[in-house]
Amino acid sequence: MIITFGLLALFFAAVVWVLQRNRTVDQSFTDYAVGGRSFGARYQAMSFLNTWYPGSMFTAFGALSVTAGVMSFYVLSYSLLTVVLLFVLARPVWIWGKAYDLRTQGDLFALRYGSRHIRTVAALIGIVSGLPWLVLGMQALGNLFQAMSLGALSFSTSVVVGVLVIALRQVWTVRMGMRGVVISDYMQGIVAYIGGGLMLVGLIVWLVMARGSTLGTLDPKMFAIPSFSSKEGPLYLFALMFTGALGGWCWPYIFVRLFTADGVRSLKKSAALAVPLTFLFGVALLIFGMLASKVPEAVAKPDDVWFIVSEQAGGLVLLGLAGVVLLAASMGHTDGNIQAYGAQLANDLVGNYVQLEQRQMIVIAKVGMLLLTLLASWLATLTLPALFSLAVLAYQGIIQLSIPQFLGIFWRRGSRQGAFAGMILGFVTAVGLEVAYGGQLPFGYGLTSGCFGLAVNLLVYVACAYLLPQSAEEQQRVDELFTVVEANREGRTAVPPQTRPAMA
Amino acid sequence: MLKQSSPAPLRRGIVKLWFAFDAVVALAPPLYWAADGRTATVAGLPTALFYFLAVSLCITASLIAAYLLDTSDEGAAA
Q1: Domain that holds residue B28
Q2: Which of B12, B17, B38, B56 to probe the A interface (max A CBs under 10 A)?
Q3: pLDDT tens across A315-343, in order?
Q4: Residue A3: how many CB atoms within 10 A of its CB?
Q5: What are the distances in angstroms from CA A302 to CA A68, A225, A285, A297, A309?
Q6: Given this structure, which CATH class describes domain A2-98+132-378?
Q7: Which ipTM did the prediction report?
Q8: Membrane-spanning residues where (chain B) (predicted)?
Q9: Considering the domain boundaries, does residue B34 fall inside one?
Q10: What's the total number of domains in chain B?
Q11: What are the pLDDT digits (tens) for A75-93?
């Protein structure tokens, strides 16, 4: 235990040391919420990866590749499509962010649709949908600390230890805001995805050489993909990938990455840097899991495949390093979550209705992060049987932000009425179907409730755009927004018609 | 194929088409239905795995190409 916990402690101390060295005083809420829009491509790429791939990649998706084989590659397909969307979204979102001092996803909604109340709706959907995932992320650390204790700690005690460690880590997230998140993401990302990727390659070689596990020796069922004969339905994989790719940019903690870069070029370069890393890490992890399906201990406990194979291949030192990798991935995801929700609380909820000074906004964000950390930590120590179901349901709900978000960015005809009505009806459809049928729709051929919600959402949004024409004044306001982006593309500068999105 | 001397709108059009192609090959159900359960090898890999790797490589290559072309556009404009 000294070796495994010692390695974890060393890594934790190294992260804190890096954060302490880079501590500065934020001058404004923009500094605190989006790091002053000051980060280059490498920081952006690692920050995106460290938030996108949580520690559960090694546990939940590792387990899926052990048990379900090649179908687990769907996570790689939609992750890569998400990076493509990063490239596509980079210019309009960053330009609007800089021109109008946007700090949250809700700010973009308010700007595009000229309504401050839509900022509240988007923030509430984001925070409510994200909380179950935050709690699940904390609980997942239970697997880590139980494995590091070599089974000496019970699972419930391990969860408490994990929660205490991740809550302690949030001290620096609260103090340093987005700057701390991005700087630590850079270090954590290198450890988790470059270090972890190299470990995965080594473990694949070990599985082939020492255990004789090759693709040719795997059970043929490992190459099944849900189709007409599957119980999930023929469109199940499509639903997972489609909602996964669209939904990625609906999470506030992912979306805010578009505001932290120092320019459009850095964002696009970050996509070009992140995409090969996403590909190599994803392929290594999923092939590793498939080959590990020949290890009986991993099959018996697939969630722990990362720890089991590491320990078998390299003893306690490699087990400790496996723990460091998973802790690095988990910390990046959790601190990104907490920072984004704290900023939303101050900017989109309290600050949306009360005139606040910059310093007051920062204080409210810090208090919000602290309260959120305490709430999530407390929930993580409870036994909540419906938590995973709630988390799945939340995903079907949050993707309803995608219609007003993507169409609002690229289509000037979309209106405020369509955005509100589409989101709300889409959300109600998804939740209603989920409640009525409990996950698997008998008429869906594998499509999830969120897909049906999206269809309703899209229909309502487009219908409102054509049937409820915008006023000439509103149309001109929207046209001016798009002119700012077009002017930038053509190398001209257009004067923003307003300085902050709808505040009144 | 994607020469830097070709017009910028053409290059942007090609990138858009490639991104659309990425979405089709990744999401179109008939493609993965066709790969379901296939263990016969293509390029030394079981077909089902080859499908996912080919899709992933296609997306990865498209994004790197898009960035390189975008950079060359900006360089030409400067």
Answers
A1: 8-77
A2: B56
A3: 999 999 999 999 999 888 888 888 889 88
A4: 15
A5: 11, 19, 13, 8, 11
A6: mainly alpha
A7: 0.91
A8: 14-35, 47-69
A9: yes
A10: 1
A11: 999 999 999 999 999 999 9
